[in-house]
Amino acid sequence: MLFQKAGKVTFEVNLYANKLMVRRAVEKIWNVEVDNVRMMIRKGKNKTYAKRPFKTSDKKRAIITLKEGYKINLPSMFETMGVEDGASVQQAEAKE
């Protein structure tokens, strides 16, 4: 949804990665220009399994805004939603 409306892409990154590292990696891998990088850390939750407590791992996300005219094509971007690559969710619902 963020990509379709604002051209933003979200990635899960290593906990030790910083904004500069993420920016350079995205620019090098996809040959695009990054306008902005925002980071967030989601703390792990405390859970129990068979009366044994444990904590799920922390996760760090990077929200990347691309400069005007650049686009990242991820082949499996819409596969998780059951939609073919590049098609919108509304088109898939109309087919059914």
Task: Summarize the SSE layout with pairings.
Blueprint: H1 2-6, E1 8-13, H2 19-30, E2 34-42, E3 46-49, E4 52-55, E5 59-66, H3 89-95
Report what the structure shows.
With 96 residues, the protein is of the alpha+beta class. It has one domain (2-71): Alpha-Beta Plaits (2-Layer Sandwich). The protein contains 3 helices and 5 strands, in the order αβαββββα. The strands form 2 sheets. It has a 3-stranded antiparallel β-sheet. The chain has a two-stranded antiparallel sheet with strand order 3-4. The protein starts with a helix and ends with a helix.
CATH class: Alpha Beta
Helix fraction, binned, reads 25-40%
- For the residues shown, what is the average pLDDT? 81
Name the CATH architecture. Answer: 2-Layer Sandwich
Major sheet summary line: 3 strands, antiparallel
* N-to-C CA distance: 21 Å
Q: What is the number of domains?
A: 1
How many β-strands, per DSSP? 5
Q: Class by helix and strand content?
A: alpha+beta
CATH topology: Alpha-Beta Plaits
Strand residue percentage? 25-35%
Task: Count up the helices.
Answer: 3
For the structure shown, list the relevant keywords.
96 residues, alpha+beta, Alpha-Beta Plaits, 3-stranded antiparallel beta sheet, two-stranded antiparallel sheet, 3 helices, 5 strands, 25% helix, 32% strand
Summarize the entry for a quick read:
The protein has helices at 2-6, 19-30, 89-95; strands spanning 8-13, 34-42, 46-49, 52-55, 59-66. With 96 residues, it is an alpha+beta fold. The two termini are 21 Å apart.
